[in-house]
Amino acid sequence: MDPIRIADPDGWIEEIFAAKAVSKGGVIRRDMTWIDREIGRDRFISEVRSRGFHLVETGGQWIVICNAGFFRVIC
Description:
Blueprint: H1 9-16, H2 20-23, E1 27-31, H3 32-38, H4 41-50, E2 54-58, E3 61-65
Antiparallel strand pairs: 1-3, 2-3
């Protein structure tokens, strides 16, 4: 069965990337199942990539580092 998608994926993307954390170069996180249901992984990855941000997957969550600069995992 295909996931149910929202009627306005562009609005969803706009809302997510309008968060205060995004404008400050912070992080946002979203449940992967929720992303699958709302817009799909491919679209989300494309949106993150188009902004030059970094995307990390952990524990069923996707963490978007809203900064195009250097990224390093310490531990």
